[in-house]
Each structure stands twice: as C-alpha cells, then as structure tokens.
Amino acid sequence: MATTTLKGQPFDRQTMDSMLRRRMFYTPSFEIYGGVAGLYDYGPPGCALLTNIMDIWRKHFVLEEDMLEVDCPALTPEKVLKTSGHVDKFADWMCKDPKNGDIIRADHFVEEILESRLKGDKEARGVKVVDKEEDPKKKKKKVKGAIEAVKLDDAVVQEYEEILAKIDNYNGDELGALIKKYEMKNPATGVEPSPPVAFNLMFQTAIGPSGNLQGYLRPETAQGQFLNFAKLLDFNQQQMPFASASVGKSYRNEISPRAGLLRVREFLMAEIEHYVDPDGGKKHQRFEEVKDIELILLNRETQLSGKTTVEKVAIGKAVADGTVDNETLGYFLARIHLFLEKIGIDQSKIRFRQHMANEMAHYAADCWDAELQTSYGWVECVGCADRSAYDLTVHAKKTGAPLMVRERLAEPITIEEWQIDLDKKKFGPFFKKDGKTVEAAIEALPQDKREAFAQDLAADGKIIIDVEGVGNGKVEISKDLIVIERRTRTENTREFTPNVIEPSFGIGRILYSLIEHNYWTRGTDGGDEARGVLSFPPPVAPTKVLLVPLSSHESFKPLLKYMSLKLRSLGVSSRVDDSSASIGKRYSRNDELGTPLGITIDFQSVKDKTYTLRDRDSTKQVRADEETILKAIKALVEGEKKWADVEKELPAFEGQEVEAELPVKEK
Amino acid sequence: MATTTLKGQPFDRQTMDSMLRRRMFYTPSFEIYGGVAGLYDYGPPGCALLTNIMDIWRKHFVLEEDMLEVDCPALTPEKVLKTSGHVDKFADWMCKDPKNGDIIRADHFVEEILESRLKGDKEARGVKVVDKEEDPKKKKKKVKGAIEAVKLDDAVVQEYEEILAKIDNYNGDELGALIKKYEMKNPATGVEPSPPVAFNLMFQTAIGPSGNLQGYLRPETAQGQFLNFAKLLDFNQQQMPFASASVGKSYRNEISPRAGLLRVREFLMAEIEHYVDPDGGKKHQRFEEVKDIELILLNRETQLSGKTTVEKVAIGKAVADGTVDNETLGYFLARIHLFLEKIGIDQSKIRFRQHMANEMAHYAADCWDAELQTSYGWVECVGCADRSAYDLTVHAKKTGAPLMVRERLAEPITIEEWQIDLDKKKFGPFFKKDGKTVEAAIEALPQDKREAFAQDLAADGKIIIDVEGVGNGKVEISKDLIVIERRTRTENTREFTPNVIEPSFGIGRILYSLIEHNYWTRGTDGGDEARGVLSFPPPVAPTKVLLVPLSSHESFKPLLKYMSLKLRSLGVSSRVDDSSASIGKRYSRNDELGTPLGITIDFQSVKDKTYTLRDRDSTKQVRADEETILKAIKALVEGEKKWADVEKELPAFEGQEVEAELPVKEK
After folding, report:
1. pLDDT per residue over A202-215, tens digit each?
2. Domain check: are B362 and B228 in the same one?
3. CB A325 within 8 A of CB A300
4. A-proximal residues of B, 194-223, CB under 8 Å
C-alpha cells in the first residue's frame, strides 16, 4: 500500500523531512561536531508538541484514573538489572567484518542476505519484484550489493522462507551456523563476518568515586516503579487494584540506529504499571465504559494465516471470545486507542497486533502492540503487555522485600493440607551443624511430596529426602524425629503477588507518526513549490494562534501587545510575526508549524477593535469584534467547537486572502 | 539564626523528613536493594509538585518571553565537553585513607580539620563555641573525632583563618601540601590521607557497539543549547536578542552526596540562555517593568566586610549604581525573584549573593546566586551568570560553525585601518611550501603590529616576522613582496558573537526549600502529636481538592463521582478519601499533602446539593450550593481570590469542625 498524506496526496518523505529540519521540529544532536547516530534534539515546535502530548497523556491516564506517578533516576545499579534479567538478556547478536571492521547486527544480516537472494530468484524466474515497505521494526540495513538474478532450487527457496519466518528465534550460535551454512558474505567486502557475539544494549557507567559500583542507564522506566510497589500500595491505603506511572528518558545502545526518530539511543517513555489481582479473571471496574469501542485486532491466528487486514471488532466482543486475554488488558487497549485518537493520530492508521508466542518475554501472559502506519511501514508505538507477577516476584525473592498484597478475607477459609512437625529436641542434636539445612529442605517440601513421604513413613518408618550439600545429598530421617499429618487450618488473610498490565508508550515514535498523519501540501496558483501544512488538532498544536499585523506600521504595535496578553490570560499560546514578509508568506510559514488559527490586525482593527480570524486548514476567514473572536478561539482550542461551527456563526471575510494567495517575495 | 516554620515555631527537620517519607514526597531510590547515595525517587505528591512547579516555570519564563525551548540528549560525546572545558576542569580533589580506604574530598577535609582545631582553641581559651549553621554549599562531612580543647598560637590561628578564607582557591598539590604541613590526620583512623588526585565529576560511558566513541552524561543542559545557536537564530528570523531554554536531567558523580535532595547525582535542571549583543551595555527592553522590584543583594564588598544581612534595594538602583553589572542580568534577577515568590517561596528567605572573583568560572563577567534559607543554611538554588561570549566562541573555533550574528548596519560605517597587500606572483615562488603558513601569519597581524611593520618597511626595506614552524621561526620579507598601507574601507554589516546571560535553576533544591518554607505544625487539644501542614499556594499544591463523604454510606457514591467529574472538567485536580477514618483524620492526612481545599459530602448534600468547603490553613468552613462552591474553588485555585474573600462572601459552617478536632482512632 502506497502511503498518502492527510489529503490523499502521494507522500514524499524527503520534502516533509526537509521541512521538519528547516522549521526545527527536530535536528541531529551535536551536528556541528559531526553528530552522533541515534541522538536527536527537539527544537521549539518539537518541544511544544512533546509538552502538549504529555499534558494530554497525563490528563487521559494519570488524572483520569488517579494513577500514582513516580519519577525515578535513569542511573540504576547493576544488581537491580541483574535481577530483572536485563544484564543477562537485554542484548542483540553482533558480528564484525574482519576486513573493514564493520559492525553488523547478525539477525538483520541473515535476513537481508536471504531476502536479497529470494529477490534475485524471483527476477531470474521473471516475476516482477515490488519493493516491500521499509519496516523499521525489522531494523533492516540495506545491503549495498545489487540484487543478482540467480535462480534457486525450489527446496532452497522454501528453506530460506522458513528461516525468515522465524528469524527472531535464533540465538547467536544458530545465526552463526546459518551464516556458515549458506555462505553469507558482507556485500561491502565479499568476506564472511565473524561469529556472532552478544552485545548488551545497556549503557554502562560507574557510580561514585571508587568506581566499584557498576551501573547502567535504565532501558525502561518500569523497574523503578516495581521497586516502590510496597510504598505505593501503602500510599494507596492498601487498596487494590491501582496503577503507577512514570514519564522519563530511557536508553538503548542500538547497534545501528536509523529511521530518524523511530530508532534512537535516548528516548522519552511513558509507562503505566497497573497492578491487578490475578484471581477472578482480571476484571476491570470501568470496562463497561469502553466495551463498544471498535479496534483493529490482528491476533496470532490471523498473522499466521498471512492476512494483514481485518475488520474492526468491539473490545467487549474480543474479550468475551478470548481474542484478548482479559478485561484489564482490553480496557487499556481501548484507552490507548482513545488517547491516540485524541492527539490526532489518523484512526485508519492504527492497528493492534498481538505478539507471537515466541516474540514475547517468557514471563508475559499476553502482549499487544499499538502499531501506527507510516511511510516506514507499521511502527510499534505502544506496547501493552500482561507481565504477570514476574517482576515483583524476582525482586521480592532477591531482596526479601514484601512486594505483595495482604488482603483480609471477607470470610475466613479453611485449608486442608499436609503439615510436618519435627521433634526439635532430638532433631538438632542428631543432625548437628546440618540441622538448619535439613530443616529448610523439609519446610520447602510441596504438598504432593509430603503426601508421598507420609505414606513412606507409615510403610518404612523412615524417609529419605534430597538435601543438597549434606553428605552425599541423601538424608535419612526416621519416624522418631518427624510426623507428617493431614490437618485443617483457618486463614483470615490472603497473600498474593499482583499481576501487572503494562501499557508502555514510545513518545518519540508517536510524535513522528502524528506529524506524518497530519502532513499534507497545498498547491499554489502561481506554480510555486507546494507548501507544507501540518493539520494538528488545536490541543496538541505547538502554538495556537499567530498574530500578524498588516504591516510594520507603528499603530499596530499596541494592539499586538494587547492581544498577546489577552490570549495569555486565556491560557492560549500565541506568537507574533511582524516580519516584513507578506501576510500570505507569514501565514504559510505558520501552516508549516501547524498553527491552527491566525489573527490579522489591520487599520480597521485600530479603529474599531474588530479582527480577522483565519483557519489554517481551509484558509477561510471570519471577522468580528474582540470579545467574539476570543470566545471563538477559546472554544476551538479547547475542542468544544470546530471551524465549521465558527464559520456558520460569524461573518466571512475575504479582504486579504487574495493577497495571501499571491506569490510573494521573501523578506 | 535559628530556623523556624511558616508559623514561627522551632523547626524540627527530623519530624518533617519523616512526614515527607511517610507521605512519599520522595524516597531513596532502590531502597529495597540497599539504596544508592545521592539518588532519590519522587513519589506521587512530589511528582505532582514537580510538574506544577515546571508548569509555572514554563509560563513565567518560556511563554512570557517567547523563549525557544529545546530538548537535547543527556548522552554527550567527549569532544563537545572537551571543548567546553568540562573534561579537563569539571573535577574535585579527592584523597584516600590508606588504612580504611575511605574516599575523602580534599578541600572539605582541610576545612573541617582546621575548623575543628580553631574550635578546640576557642574552647581552650574559654570562649563559648556556638555551632555554625550547616551549609550544604560547603559540603562538609562532619569530622568524627571529638573536638579537643587545645590552645593554638595566635599566629597559627591567623594562618588557619587565612587558609579557610580562600579554601576554594587551592589546587590538588596545594591542598596536599597543607595536609602535610599541618599534619592533618583522618580522625577515623589517625593516619594522613594520600595526596589529592583530580576526580572528574562526569559519568562516563561508551556510545555505540564499537566502544570507540567516548561519551559522558551532561553535567548541565547549556551545551546542547549553545551547539544549536545558529539554527535557533535562524528559527528566530535572525532577530536579536532572544533566549533558548531547556528542561532536563543532568548528572554529577558527587564524591559524597548528602543533605537529601540538596546534593544528588541526578537532578532536574531548567536553564535559560539569553543571547545579547555585548555592545551597548546589555540593555533589556523590559527592564522598565521590573526596575522597582526590591531584592536583597549581597555583593562582593559586603561579603568581604563580613556582613551577611543587607537592606533591600530596587533592582533599577542596583544596576544604576553598578552593583549589578547590566540591565539584562538585573532583569533576570528580578524575574527569578518573582518566580520564586509565585510558587510560594518565603520572601524573607530569598537573597542574591554575588560570586567572589575567585569563585566564578574564568570567563564569567558577573554571577549572582539566588540563595534560599533552609535548615541546612543558605542554599544556592538558582545561578544567574553572565557567561560572556566564552561558550559560543570556543565551539565556533573548534568546529568552524558560524555561532555568531551578522547584522545589517543601519548606516554603513567607514573604517580606517592598516591593510597588507602581498605580491602573490613573487610571494608563492619565493616561499614555496611555506607560502601558505607565512601568508596566514601575516594575515593574522593585529593593527598595532601592522603599523610598526609599516615603519620598519619604510626604514629598512624589509621586515622580520615570527612564523612558527618555518625555519628558525623568524622570516624576513623584503619590500618587493609586501605593501603595508593605511586605507579606509566601508562596512555594511557587523558581525559579533553574542554574550550569554544564563539563569540556571536546580529544581530539586527549589522544591525542597519550598516544602520547608511551607511547613508548620498544628497542635491538638487532646495532647496528641502535632500534625504537619504544608501550606502550598493552590497553584503548586499537588492536589487541589479533597473530596470526603461523611461516611461510607452508599448514597454518597454518586455525588462523589459527580463532583470528581465536575472538578476535572474545570481542570482542577481532586482526590477522594472514602476510607473509614474519621473526617478529621482524613483532613489532617491531606493537610500533610498540602491539599488546600476540602469538600465534605453529607446527608444534606444528597438532599439539596449543598456542600461544605474547608480551608486547609484556617480549617474554617463555608457552605453553599454546588455552583457557588465550584466557582469559589476555581477562583482560589487560579489565585484570583484568597480564602478571606470566600469567607466574607459565603455563610460559615461549623457543624463538622468539632468532630474534625477530636482525637480520632486510625482506620
């Protein structure tokens, strides 16, 4: 599918990119020093867009549901990330070209070589080759060598296709074996890369003056939230369920960053950890409010069938029929959809894709990504995973901290179980220094083993249990030391480790998609170059109102200052453009910045305080007195009215648009 | 001076700290793993406070003056920080105790030992020793050994005092010499620490998979702004003056972090870089608006005289009499003062202290710190420096990027100067491979040298100039190769490197001071423990309104939900406390969080939709219908009205306060 702009025009990324750089939405960091791959600066309009997106995010999620926001450092000591699994597993496989020293991501390399060979095969068979959309999720680095039209055996084609289908599943040795087996050579040098080695994606540093405390920059904000679980539960007066949230920078030392803002080394994340009782089907109290919201859900089966488009389905139905695992997960998918819609993401370019079983972290129960369609393909922008009780469990086990919920039961419950009594007086003296170890091994016996041992004890008068580190690892205990009996016990409280549903937002990716979704170009009568427009909804637009005086005449200055102050007191951001460029030029500069409204101050304004209000998207204008204009602006910016409403209510003005459309000289 | 609370009570830091931890304003990071010194997490009320402070900051500075906000990565390549001087100079001197391995900051060590000896001397002389305020700026680590009452020679006392007066001026060798000379021993072990070595305070890391690109976490946000100067000037349509601004985390690997939020390793900074033409006295267009604002200005002379208190003076007068170097610097001092006042900093606890000449970076023209008084002493919270043209100049020189302003002159100017012509045809062949080097040396000659050489040439028919790297460094040029003449030339443009005025805010320190300045305790009739109150102004308060139902009766639930929605639609944050604790208890919990207003929902509310509105500070209550109550809340939260106004307008309610004041049982 070819990508089109908001107005259905063919999308030209290069033109848009050059506009974004020129208007300083973002720009490569440290550019005067040659830049660093994967690091970007946001300029003034980019920053304002970011601030507005985050403001809406906070209102939509944190305030709406009384989430407990925390702000934790990016600097993280190694032991935390060792427990979470990041030190051992947060890595990509990397090869080196022995000839030119190129560093190559092994999975990308195998993928590209095989795809290029398959393309060559198709060409040799006379099949027309259509370039696939570039997909940043797959992080491809274009292979430099040209495609050679070489026909492959049918069996080989099938082998290649099978490898590509499970490319995310291979470990380093397996990738190395594939490279050897299929004689894959770096097209740049013609030599085979070195065997893959694991490259951890975390930035490492030492904390404190001694250099002994190893640390990393966090790769996600989640861990800081988990570590505070007990304090947060306390803050929430022990009430479940609840959510914590965090907004902050995270870091990943990508092997080869690319695709602009989509794959960077430092990025803004917004993460929610919603803690829910694993028992009772993970219901959500407010699910009713969202159940009719329709989403495009690309589940596992659909993906395996090779289909990429599906009908929309109500989230209520999807949870009921088991497509989405539970209500809480479904609730957040719907809320994510509403958020994306609210900031101006094109509804027809959102889909939710379920992770394949092998794509998920081993502890995850289910995971859906909100993907947004861009000229780079479908981009994962929000992940929504059910992380189960994994993180809280491992941190609790490592530190001994009680990262769980103790709930008073409405009715006490009676539990029937196998209990063990030791004759402590005899037991200690008998096992001496090994006493504690043996006792711990006995305490740890699960119910089924206890039952079996009870039978052994009755039959043989002794049991033999495995105790690591004592003698040969087998310990005999006779019936005068131990009693195993089935008894009942009453419980007044219930302890459980909550499961975590985690919506995790990549803000830079959302911001880039938002820009693409709102970009289009306006032709000119004079045959000039088409002019870019960013049709952001007013609430996210970097600046809401442009103030333009008709000319640099002194009489306009007091009114400019007056209107700036008026707008500021209404909480509406505005900018003045009093440069000597024509009004049309000044408006089109601000169309590029996505400024939705413009006020023209002319000689009539000086006389009677009436103003012209211009709409960015239609370039239509209306004219009215100050109070009416300000009221209309406030209603438009707060989303209470659309331009069409304003146009109906206020008299049209056509005086300046003629001049505005004339080709004009630059200042 | 003893520190007191907002209500003049003796300030008890331990009680306040324990309340702040309990209510999760902030908490040591990674605490369940034993924590890491100098790293803190902000909990929900701390985060909300931070967000509100930053929101006001953006409105007060960025929006008010159309500053150009940029957001740059914390990861910074070494070459940038090499040029800025941080790689070589951003260090403290550090010693090691050879016995126990303690790491000691050398300047603090010398300072503490000498102060302790002076104290011992005073004691021996029978002078009463009063503990000085602890001053975190001086980063003292309390020496563990007890003070020994040993009398010193008068001459030695004078030597010690002189050393202490210039303690910030010594380099590592000098500090080492002092330690040796005065036989300073670590009280913990009785041995002399190792000679001081420089310890760079930046966190180091490697960027990219090769490990070849050395990087650091930025120690300030300023450099990212400077590198973008040319793009920002362009964005601003070449108009001067203008300012950029940045909000983000910065990092300093402190040797021994302490004093809670006041000296940490990762912290939020908000920095403004205001670019101004160095010619014309650095006037500011809006100085007139602030000139009557009165500040406490502790200038260099006053500090040298030993005085610490001075009268307030209008900033207009201070600039006029030269106390403050220029209008732009003065303008920002006043704006900083207004900002601090706006968020609720106690006006009587703000002072501006001028840096001593030896305290400033060598390039700075002037520097004033806004210091806030806390129980730790006066704390530097905002720096306001005139960084001159230093940063832009060094980066431009290193990279060749044009970090300057080219201004069209209103009237062309005529310049009379000594110009040099070389006879290129003869010059090249004569000097051969050295030609370019010699030519560059000639081009670089300043006007005074040119004049002198013109006279030499007339007198001797030749000149001898210094050219490094050519022959013996002396090059003879005869008059057939060179002409030096005084001529006039017309200039239409003027080029200059702007000077930078930099207000730099340590947000964590401001936040902590704000908490201290608004803390007090309310006694109880029943003799219970005094209850903490944080009297934040409504605009910064983490939550604006507490909603409390009289009891957990079902009939209150719809109204709670209704009022929550109502408040949210007004943009007012609220929280419900429907726990079973008494109303009084619930209110006092929220006084600790600084929630300024409370709405009680009782049976009367269910009947007629009237509500009680409670004021945190006075605990007074008024009662009115929904619309009136909401209007009052909006006016209070937006700072348009004070509680006194509301109390005058609406009927008082005294029904519940009796219960609220009763000692109550915890839930």
Report:
1. 999 999 988 889 99
2. yes
3. no
4. 199, 203-210, 213, 215, 217
